[in-house]
Fold these 4 entries.
Entry 1:
Amino acid sequence: MLDKITKKIEGVVGQLPVTHDIKLQIESTLRTVLDEMNVVMREELEVQETRLNRAQSRIESLEARLSELEEKNLKG
C-alpha cells in the first residue's frame, strides 16, 4: 500500500528525479501519518480477522460442550 501511494506521489511530483533516499523518506513519513491516524494495513486486518474467526469458533465449541455438561449434570 505504501509503495502504491509513493508511486502516486512520484507521479504528482512529475519529472523531478526521486532518489531512493527521497522514496524512503516519503514512505517513512506516510507510515508515521498512517500510524497517527490509527490506520491498519490490509494484511494486519486479515490476520486479526482470522484470529477473531478462530476465537469465535472456539467459543461456540466451548459453549456447546458446556451445554452438554450441564445437561449431563442435571440428568445425573
Note: The chain has a mean pLDDT of 85.
Entry 2:
Amino acid sequence: MGGGLYNNINGRFVLEVFAGYGGGNYNGFFSSTTNTSYNSNASIQKIFLQPTVGLVTDIFDASLGARFSGINLVPEIETDKITSSIFLNQFFHWG
C-alpha cells in the first residue's frame, strides 16, 4: 500500500514523494540429510520513502530518485536437534 505527491515547479522541474507500507508472513520447512528439520516462521514489515526530483522539456523527461526503506523481521524458529540461536546466525546473519 502506498501513495505519493507530485508538484510541477515553473513548468520545468518536478518534485515527487512516494511512501508505502507492506507486511506479511513467511512459513517454511527445511530438512537435511542428517534427519534434522527446521520450521521457520517470520513476520515481515517494510516501510519506504522515495523522494524524486525531475526535469521536464519538450524533448525528454529525466528524474533522479532514491528509496529509503526499513524492514522489521521477527523470526520464530522451531528445531528438532539444534538451538534457535545457531539457526538464526546461519540463516539471518544478525550482528
Note: The helical segments are 84-91.
Entry 3:
Amino acid sequence: MNLKFILIKAIDIYIFLIILRAIFSWFRLNQQNMFFQLYLFLIKLTEPVLGKLRDLQLRILPNLSIDFSPLLALLILNFLQNIVLTSNL
C-alpha cells in the first residue's frame, strides 16, 4: 500500500461519514433510538471540520439560514482527492 492509496481511502471514509451525518440529521433521534449513539459518534468525528466551515459561512453570509457546511466540506475533500490522485506520491 502506498501513501496515495491511504490518503484516497481516508478521504473516502470521511466523505462517507459526512454524508451519513447529513442523512441522520433529517430524522428526529432521541436517546431511546438505536442510532442515537452512532449519530453522536458521527458528530464527534465530523464537527471539527464542519464547525469551522459553518463559522466561515456565518461570517460570509450571516443571514443565511441553511447550513451549507457539509456541501462545502464535500467539495473541498473532493478537490483534495483530485490533487492526491494527480500527484506523484
Note: The chain has a mean pLDDT of 94.
Entry 4:
Amino acid sequence: MTHASPVEARSQAHFKIVKNDVGAHVASRVITLGASERREEIASMLAGAEVTREARAAAKSLIEKAG
C-alpha cells in the first residue's frame, strides 16, 4: 500500500479502498482498477483535488517509464 505515485506506477496491480457510511457503521470495499482507472488514480495522487491534463500526462509518463 502506498500514497507515493512513483511507487504506484511500478506496481503490477492497483487497488482502491472505498469507505461508505452505512448507518452507524462504516463499510469498506476493495476495488481492482483497470488501466485507465489506474492512470486516473495516479494523476489524482499527483494533482490533489482537481486532476489536470498535466497530471494525467505525468501519470501516463510514470507508468510508461516503469514499463
Note: Residues 5-66 form one domain.
